[in-house]
Amino acid sequence: MTDRYSLLRPWLFCLDPEQAHDLTLSNLDRAQRWGLLGRLVPKPIDDPRTLCGITFANPVGLAAGLDKDGKHIDALAALGFGFLEIGTVTPRPQPGNPKPRMFRLPQAEAIINRMGFNNDGVDACVTRVRQSQYWQKGGVLGLNIGKNASTPIEDAASDYILAMEAVYEIATYITVNISSPNTQNLRALQGEEMLRSLLSDLDQARKRLSDRYGVRKPLFLKIAPDLDVADINLIADLLMEFGIDAIIATNTTIARDAVQGMKHDQEAGGLSGAPVRHAANLVIKALKARLANQLPIIGVGGILSGADAKEKIASGASLIQIYSGLIYRGPDLVNECVKALRN
Fold it and tell me: What DSSP character marks residue 249?
């Protein structure tokens, strides 16, 4: 599909990024319903990896953010991912931040977004997950959860628990997103006092849910790249203390050093794509050093080639996720990364 996407991309890049995003996904849905995706994309590659008691079909997953509401699960699964992460979803529907809220920086192969957890609410997402063929056939599906913008930061745990209760039965694993820069004060949850309190509350909630459903669902935490080594060590220690199963490193960055002077460089929001690669890899390396293989790491941030995927694994990740790379490289990036990581 490389040649097709290289022809389509200039046209898509003439559109507003959010409009192009929605149009691309709706067309993928249509192609999937008509049985055309199998002809347009390479056959998915099986290269199973087992992590946290979960068998992933291959080590390349979809990062949260691309399908916030679970509207496109079957079409995205057809692109060859070993697993999908849906969300971020919040307990109540919310519109997110005012538009425009997504910006391309093609010179840097980057995106800035300040979406603000726009979603239809967790209950609507759960309904869509249940309706998807991918979920019904046992595909690995992570649910990424967050707090509503209107919920005070000191009450954040209540939102995370509500969302966890809603997705627990249908999620293969649950990711707690405390690292988006686009919800006011959210990253304060990465500090010691607030993170300890949140993880303690989530641990207790998971124990109740495990008893209710007779299964302990893995709980992952997603962190920012804008952390120093002391912060990373603190988070790693707390994750082990409270039995968190894995860590996703990293979310978008608020740094702008790599894009200074480019159009949109000063737009508020999180920067993703190639410029975040180095910072994300440094966080992964620091986590690996602190965790000493006691907790797996899922690497995300700046993967635009198979070589980038290999670098993530070499840094200490066990699995990877991609999102912005799809915007610049197209669906063939999935299989390129799987082939690069094949055992």
Answer: E
Based on the residue annotation, tell me whether 180 is a catalytic residue of this protein.
Answer: yes
Q: Classify 298 as helix, strand or coil.
A: strand
Q: What angle do CA 325, 327, 330 make, to 5 degrees?
A: 80
Which residues lie closer than 8 Å to 292 by C-beta, 6 or more apart? none
DSSP state of 229: H
Q: Please, which pLDDT band fits residue 3 given cuts at 50, 70 and 90?
A: low
Nearest-angstrom CA–CA distance, 340 and 343: 9
Q: Which amino acid is at 302?
A: G
Tens-place pLDDT, residues 196-236: 999 999 999 999 999 999 999 999 999 999 999 999 999 99
Cα(208)–Cα(120) distance, integer angstroms: 26
Cross-strand partners of 102: 113
Question: φ, ψ for residue 211 (rounded to 5)?
Answer: -65, -40
Q: 6, 132, 150, 180: which is the annotated catalytic residue? A: 180
Q: What's the DSSP call for residue 143? A: E
Residue type, 335: N
Q: What is the DSSP letter of 293?
A: T
Where helices occur in the chain by DSSP H, the ranges are: 2-12, 17-33, 37-40, 73-77, 122-131, 133-136, 156-167, 192-213, 229-241, 277-291, 306-315, 324-329, 332-341
* pTM of the complete model beyond 0.85: yes
Q: Does domain 2-341 bear CATH number 3.20.20.70?
A: yes
- Check if the beta carbon of residue 166 is closer than 8 Å to that of residue 174: no
pLDDT over 90 (residue 182): no
